[in-house]
Amino acid sequence: MELKKKSLKLELLGFFLLNVFAVSMAARKTIPPINWVLKETKYTRLCSSKKILTVNGLFPGPTLYVRKGDRLTVNVQNQGKYNVTIHWHGVKQPRNPWSDGPVYVTQCPIKPGANFTYEIIFSTEEGTLWWHAHSDWSRATVHGPIVVYPSIGTTYPFPKPHAEFPIVLASWFKGDVMEIIQSALDGGGEPNKSDALTINGQPGDLYNCSKPGTFKVMVNHGKRYLLRVINSIMNEEVFFAVAKHKFTVVGTDGAYIKPTKTDYILITPGQTMDILLTANKSPSHYYMAARASAGVVYDNTTTTAVVKYIGNYTAPSKPAFPSKLPNYTDIDAVTDFTKRIKALASKNYPIDVPKKVDTRLFITISVGSIPCPNDSCDGPNGSRLAASLNNVSFEEPTVDLLQAYYRKIGGIFTTDFPTVPPYFFNFTADEMPDNVLIPSTGTKVRVLEFNSSVEIVFQGTNVLNASENHPMHLHGFSFYLVGSGFGIFDNKTDPKGYNLVDPPEINTVGVPKNGWATIRFRADNPGVWFMHCHLERHSSWGMDMAFIVKNGPTRSTSLRRPPRHLNPC
């Protein structure tokens, strides 16, 4: 027991010391290169121990602290046993998809024993982002925060907090996550669900063998704190709240929003939120809790941390639980929160929503299945599960798309990703026609003209009764969420309700269950950029595609040359 306590203390100490070191680095104009080692590290959770893939031995991984507009190089050495790549989620990487990270899209994997140096170029982002592995399911344990401070001479558009804390929500699997997804893909069925959700690497008091390690946030009465919340969970969007305390949400996905007061937040995998919390309640212990929000719950457990007031008082026998944390199936709570998120859209933080649209796409989001010989697979009726966008299930190429595009290698991809689905039907009906259940497969991309304005309507479907809130993430861009709703998108009436004044600028949008969402962006970043569902099992099944944005007329509006060293496929 003493050995376990000592190990836990060292683990937490390492996590915070590394973050403190990174803060001191962020104050400098030139950020020195950072070296990361991917390695297997032994961790104990839920009464059992196993080795997990980590960066520098940490779970969650180290926090990167930068200022707006900085450049950073991170050398990643892979001492693990699986191929890995790293993605800098929400960093636009202008003209530099070479360091964006999705495996076989913008780079070949970093194989065991190899290394790769990423150049991370920050531009307009400000607030909280994150990084994670972007190869198979290794991101379950390989992830961490990115904090982008305002540039020197500027400050937050909200009152300066007394202190700040990264709050990383994640999944914990007792089994080997890579074996779990590989077994599911081999068999064609659902992967095992996670055994716990975690806050900063710890499941919390409500799980077996977890109370001693529960993460604690220490606060002083009357002080204001900034919580930088990141949903790195594999397959669940979650509600998040602190008992008896209100939040003021001030940012999401690396951009500021109008301050929004709320008892809870709804955050999908891939999203980040900046939240102000004022410690203005009676000094005591209060649970911080997160649990899934879904019509069909995958992991329906609840993870907790404890907000502890500093001072002399009689501690309660048990922390207060957030009574206003919505229930799993509370769709109204989802809508009530998301509809209130608006861009700050101020003089100092303007937005630029495309009013005129050059390219329109209507993309259906579905989970279908592909027949197997003799009905031998583990999916519905012996089939293999296959997710799709516009009825195309993405096939991972053997050479990354970016190299194939840049070096004009034929036979790797086609440019015929459809602008509309092949069939129009009652997308949200309980019963579906047979011809929409089986997607086609392929490595299809859509080519966009440089600086063209793009509108995408995402339409959720109820194929295989698999309707969920799909967090769609676009690499290389932030986009504006101009509208959303339930049911089937109406091209005549729904655009009349678009918000073109202060729509939130985000990089991941939760498409409502059995509903639709419309985004707009300007294709001003040349290169190859991945778009996919951030529910990891859906992405693994093919709910992905890629855009190729053509070069502009000048060198400064064209794709950069590749780095000297690219990993072989």
Largest sheet: 6 strands, mixed
**Model regions low in confidence, pLDDT < 50 over at least 5 residues:** 1-28
Number of strand elements:
32
Which structural class fits the helix and strand makeup?
Answer: mainly beta
Q: Give the % helix.
A: under 10%
Number of helical elements: 5
The geometry reads as globular
Instruction: Write down the overall mean pLDDT.
Output: 93
Q: What is Rg?
A: 23 Å
The neighbouring-strand order within the major sheet is 10-9-12-17-14-15
Approximate strand percentage: 35-45%
Q: What's the N-to-C terminus distance?
A: 46 Å
Overview features:
single chain, 569 residues, mainly beta, six-stranded mixed sheet, 5 helices, disordered N terminus
Give me a quick take on this structure:
The chain is mainly beta.
Structure, explained:
It is built from five helices and 32 strands. The protein has 569 residues and is mainly β. The longest helix has 25 residues, at 2-26. The radius of gyration is 23 Å and the shape is globular. The N and C termini lie far apart (46 Å).
List strands and helices in order, with pairings.
Layout: H1 2-26, E1 34-45, E2 48-55, E3 64-67, E4 71-78, E5 86-89, E6 115-121, E7 127-133, E8 143-149, E9 163-172, H2 177-187, E10 196-199, E11 216-219, E12 224-231, E13 238-242, E14 247-252, E15 255-262, E16 265-267, E17 272-278, E18 285-292, E19 302-309, H3 331-338, E20 359-370, E21 384-389, E22 392-394, H4 401-406, E23 440-442, E24 445-448, E25 452-460, E26 470-474, E27 479-486, E28 505-506, E29 508-511, E30 515-523, E31 527-533, H5 536-540, E32 544-549
Parallel strand pairs: 1-4, 3-8, 9-12, 11-19, 20-25, 22-23, 24-32
Antiparallel strand pairs: 1-2, 4-6, 5-7, 7-8, 9-10, 12-17, 13-16, 13-18, 14-15, 14-17, 18-19, 20-21, 25-30, 26-29, 26-31, 27-28, 27-30, 31-32
